[in-house]
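SAMPLE LOG
Freezer: B-3
Tube label: C17
Construct: single chain, 83 aa
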Amino acid sequence: MMHTLHITERTGKDGVLHVSAPLGTPNAAYDVVLVVQPKGVTPSAIAEAGAWPPGHFDLAGSIEDETFTRPPQGELPKPLEIE
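STRUCTURE (predicted):
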């Protein structure tokens, strides 16, 4: 059975993070996946830091009119034949 633990820990004065996960079964082997993210990091903070291009998380909007239907788009032209 897989467990998902969400814990918040602090690094020590030496910058090392020590993680303790109480699982209750002594001498058992586990596969562990550890994802570390600084506390308070949001997509907008990542964008401000330059990791994402400006406007990456801006939304284009939406249509709230339930009667709106997409008009026919027509047909694509036939592809060119390459010899």
